[in-house]
C-alpha cells in the first residue's frame, strides 16, 4: 500500500499542473476581453452662490451648470458633490451630494458672517472631476426683517390695537359686551346648593405655581366665589399647593368677604397650605372630601393625572362638581365625572367676566375680535382663490 500511495503523489501533481495550464489561456483571454475603465465625466461649470434672503444668516443657495456628460439616459454622471473650504486653497470638505440632473442646492450648515468657498464635482463610474475654479467668498448674513412675514406683523398689530381699544373702553366706563358663560351659573348654583345643605364649598385652584396662567385665572375667580360664599355665610375651604398662591388665595378670600360687606366673617384658616408634592396634595384633598363632605367641589386651574382621582372621589360623595382647565388631556376626565366643565379658554373668559378688570376684559375682547377678523380673511381668501386671484394667498404665506 505504501508503494502505491507514493506513486499516486507525482501523478496527482501532474494532473493539477495540466489543469492549470489548460485554464491559463482562458484567463488570459478573459483579461484581454475585459472592457476599459470609463473615463471620468466632464466637469460642471458656472458655480454661483447667493445668500438666502429673510433668514438668520445660516443658509446659502448654490447653482451650477450641469456636466456636458449629464444627459438624459446617459450613465457617465451619477451625481454631484458639493465641497466647501474656508480658504480658496482648501482643505476641502464634502458638505453634501445631489443626484444627476440636479443643478442647485441650499447649504444650511453655515455660521453667520463667516467666509466660505465652494467647488462642485461631477461623479461617475470613471471617478470624479472637480470644477476648475472655486466660488467665493460666500458670506451668509442675517436679515433684520423677514419680508415674507408681513401678514403676521399685520395681525399682531391688529391684535394689540384691539386690546388697547377695548381696555380703553372698559376703563372709561363703557364696558364691552361679554357673554355670560353657563359655567358661571353652574358655579353659583353649586354654592347655592352648599348653602341649602349647610355644608362647605371646596375650591381647588389647581396644582401649579403662580407662574402658570391657569392658576392666576383661578385665583381671580376665587375672589368672586369667596364674595358669594361670604354673602350666603357659607364656609369655604381652599387647599393650596404652593406658598405664593397660598398667600394670594388668602388675600382673594379676604377681598371677597370685604366686597360682600362681611369682613368680620373672614377665617384665615379657610385657606390652607398643603404640599407641592402632587399625590400628597391629592391625598389631603380626598381626605377633606370624605371627612368634611363639602356639598360643592370647584376644580378650576391646571390639573394633571390627579384630575380623575379628584373628580371620581368627589362624585362618590354626591357633591355637585364644576371643573375648568385648559389642559386638553385632562378635560375628558372632568367632563365625565363633573356636572359642568369650563373648557379651555372659558376658564380665562370666566376670570375676565367675573372680575371685570379692564386689562382682562380688553384682552378677552381683543382676542375674540381677532378670531372674527381671521375668519373673515379666510372666507375672502377662499372667494378670491375661486376667482383665480392669488395675491391674498401669497401675502398670507410665510417661510
Could you explain the architecture of this structure?
The chain has helices spanning 2-33, 150-171, 182-197, 213-232, 243-259, 278-292, 306-316, 331-337, 346-355, 358-386, 391-396, and strands at 45-51, 60-65, 79-85, 93-99, 104-107, 115-124, 127-130, 135-139, 201-204, 236-240, 271-273, 296-300, 320-325, 340-343. With 399 residues, it is an alpha/beta fold. The chain has a 6-stranded parallel beta sheet with strand order 11-10-9-12-13-14, with helices on both faces. Strands 3, 4, 6, 7 and 8 form a 5-stranded antiparallel beta sheet that branches. Strand 3 and strand 4 (93-99) form a beta hairpin. Helix 3 packs across helix 4 (213-232), helix 4 runs parallel beside helix 5 and helix 4 crosses helix 9 (346-355). It is elongated, with a radius of gyration of 39 Å.
The largest sheet is: 6 strands, parallel
The helix/strand series, from N terminus to C terminus, equals HEEEEEEEEHHEHEHEHEHEHEHHH
**Number of helical elements:** 11
| Rounded radius of gyration (Å) | 39 Å
**Could you report the average pLDDT, rounded to the nearest whole number?**
86
The portion of residues assigned to helices is 40-55%
- Structural class from helices and strands? alpha/beta
Uncertain segments are 1-34
Q: Per the principal axes of the C-alpha atoms, what is the gross shape?
A: elongated
Q: What is the β-strand count? A: 14
- Work out the strand percent: 15-25%
Strand order of the largest sheet: 11-10-9-12-13-14
Distance between the termini: 91 Å
